[in-house]
Specification:
By secondary structure, the chain is α/β, with parallel strands linked by helices. Helices cover 38% and strands 17% of the residues. The chain has 8 helices and 10 strands. Helix 3 runs parallel beside helix 5.
């Protein structure tokens, strides 16, 4: 019996004021800030043009409305209000994308909202319903085994589980909070090794050595991580050398 072909998408979060051009050659998807934590119509247009020129899939990267905190603070908002904000953000990007001849294909929440959706079933259902009303063909991206995954599957919305090349995992399978020891991978070699194991075996080592099973369809490269371009280059080289096909999930 031959080895089953292996495929993975590489995504980065774009339109946040970092060097998107440096990551684009190595990625297949970018999720673009829609104005709530970063970005505006001009940055969305620039990101859409980059996607068109590089052949990248264009996704939306909505967040809590929190520019001051870069979307990394959980806000005390009703689920319906958060869902309406997400809908408006995705719609804003879709309008800009259409002017560039592109369509938004996926939605990945940002920062504190992404992490809230790991376990908040009520909020996850509200956001999935809002996305489905906007366009049921949109793909939702989030952490494996999360509330957003369960809500998406219940609503017959396609879900793609995400892993991270440049972030550390706790033994609970969640990312180590930024600012704590082990939160970031400190070298391109470490990021490449983690991406390789996620893509090839669906496994990752937590910072305490625990082996975690994380079946993912996309791996994220953060543009705001120190050495982001070197990380992206190393990750792509490692995957290509291992015979892992890097391609868009939509």
């Amino acid at each position: 019996m031959g080895t089953e072909p292996r495929f993975i998408d590489l995504n980065f979060d774009g339109g946040e004021g970092f060097d998107d051009e440096a990551l684009a050659p190595f990625a297949t998807t970018t999720h673009v800030a829609c104005g709530a934590h970063a970005g505006d119509a001009a940055s969305m247009r620039t990101a859409a043009a980059l996607c068109r020129g590089r052949g990248l899939a264009l996704g939306a990267h909505p967040s809590y409305p929190d520019r001051a905190g870069f979307g990394r603070r959980r806000l005390a908002m009703a689920a319906s209000d958060v869902a309406e904000s997400v809908r408006a953000q995705v719609e804003a990007l879709a309008t800009v994308a259409a002017s560039e001849g592109l369509a938004v294909t996926s939605v990945k929440l940002h920062g504190a909202l992404y992490h809230a959706l790991a376990s908040d079933d009520h909020l996850a259902r509200a956001i999935v319903e809002a996305v489905a009303r906007l366009d049921p063909r949109l793909v939702l991206v989030g952490s494996p085994g999360s509330s957003i995954e369960r809500a998406a599957l219940a609503a017959s919305i396609r879900f793609v589980a995400e892993g991270f090349a440049d972030r550390g995992y706790g033994k609970d399978g969640l990312l180590v909070p930024r600012g704590q020891p082990g939160a970031l991978k400190e070298s391109p070699e470490e990021a490449a090794a983690q991406a390789f194991f996620l893509a090839s075996s669906g496994e990752v080592r937590a910072i305490d050595g625990t082996r975690l099973t994380l079946a993912v369809g996309t791996i994220c490269l953060h543009g705001d991580t120190p050495g982001a371009a070197s990380n992206a280059r190393a990750v792509r080289r490692a995957l290509d050398a291992a015979g892992v096909t890097v391609r868009r999930f939509c």
